[in-house]
Amino acid sequence: MTIWLGRDAAQVIIEQANIFFPLETGGVLLGWRDGEDRVVVDIVGAGPKALHGRHTFIPDHSWQVEQIDEAFRNTAGDLDYLGDWHSHPAGVAAMSSEDRSTLRRISRRVRHPIMVIAAGRNANWTFGGWMQLRPRLLRRSVAECQPIQYFAVPSEWPRAPLSAE
Ligand SMILES: [Zn+2]
Hints:
Elements: E1 3-6, H1 7-20, E2 26-34, E3 37-44, E4 51-52, E5 57-58, H2 61-74, E6 80-89, H3 97-106, E7 114-121, E8 124-133, E9 142-146, E10 148-151
Parallel strand pairs: 1-3, 1-10, 6-7
Antiparallel strand pairs: 2-3, 2-6, 4-5, 7-8, 8-9
The chain binds zinc ion.
The site of zinc ion has 5 residues, from strand 6.
């Protein structure tokens, strides 16, 4: 599978990551499922009451839910919650053990969720993407690294305004 990441969404992630640098920030990924592929067209940020630490952040959950609801309304329910994103300021685009347990927890309510991590600083951010999968022969699900492809979201696609705060 491939994670298709809209260039605008990737840009907003980088802007947000730089605003909070050297602290971590993050949010949710919205878009579509296309077979096993995921197409990310919008992101929601951490929210005004989020708490940001060096290696963790706690999102403003009620604000995020409002933003997601609004995105659903603006697109007539076309967008889907696909997973979460967050930054690793001055770090590497790799899953920490907390990241793995977060993605495993999300997978209890969302089928095959994805996690996107942006690592770096200033103009140098590297993206990594993972999907929680349950391989045959394995009893428990695992996060598998997935390729990310960037694309320009066609202007005629239904979308909500990017809400990053
Ligand atoms: Zn992390």
